[in-house]
Design a protein that fits this description.
elongated, 2 domains, 4-stranded antiparallel β-sheet, 27% strand
């Protein structure tokens, strides 16, 4: 005879063998409703006029003492001029900030310096600022995916195959980074360029 041992963990069964109901969670939307209302300079009385809802009930909604129906939420969203989903945002995650002094940096040929503007936080794109002195040249290299370039300062010549383009401050260039390319500082002073690439790999500037 084979004996099989089974352990039931967290079965939520009562003494009668039936599953105990789970407590329902009440979405807390009061603070968001109050914020949207005050941002628009609306009083509770005015919102009541726009929605047909009682002022006392609206006050209970804003203090999370009442659970509004979807119909009520839709009326509030219309009154505020926002999508209904905005009312269901309970907590907005804090932004992630990378200070200039916190950027990871590296040095390439000819005193070219690169800094990760995004701090390596994003998984879907990378943002890098590259600085180069006059006459500096970044050798042939390639990166997977699109590369977007915005020249911030100086003059650069970007070359890929038979194509060569000189950029001045404010000029933008995008190309397929998978094809080998190189960059030259053809100006009389230092140059700064912002490079945005898709994916987590970033910009592969050859190192010294």
């Amino acid at each position: 005879m084979m004996l099989v041992s089974m352990v039931m963990v967290g079965n939520n069964m009562d003494d009668g063998g039936e599953a105990a109901p789970r407590p329902r969670r009440r979405p807390r939307i009061g603070a968001q409703v109050r914020r949207l209302r005050t941002d628009r300079g609306l009083t509770l009385a005015r919102v009541g006029e726009l929605t047909g809802l009682n002022v006392g009930y609206l006050s209970q909604v804003e203090t999370d003492k009442a659970s509004p129906s979807l119909e009520t939420l839709a009326a509030l969203a219309d009154a505020f001029g926002v999508p209904l989903s905005w009312l269901l945002v309970e907590a907005v995650p804090p932004p992630r900030v990378v200070r200039r002094g916190e950027r990871r940096a590296w040095t390439g040929p000819g005193e070219v310096r690169g800094e990760e503007v995004d701090g390596g936080l994003s998984r879907t794109l990378r943002i890098v600022e590259v600085r180069s002195p006059p006459g500096a040249r970044i050798p042939l290299h390639a990166d997977p995916g699109e590369e977007h370039h915005l020249l911030l300062e100086g003059r650069l010549r970007l070359s890929q195959g038979e194509h060569a383009v000189e950029l001045e401050p404010g000029d933008y260039l995008v190309w397929d980074g998978g094809f080998p390319h190189y960059v030259e500082n053809v100006g009389d002073g230092p140059a700064r360029i912002l490079i945005v690439t898709t994916g987590p790999s970033g910009v592969s500037i050859p190192l010294e």
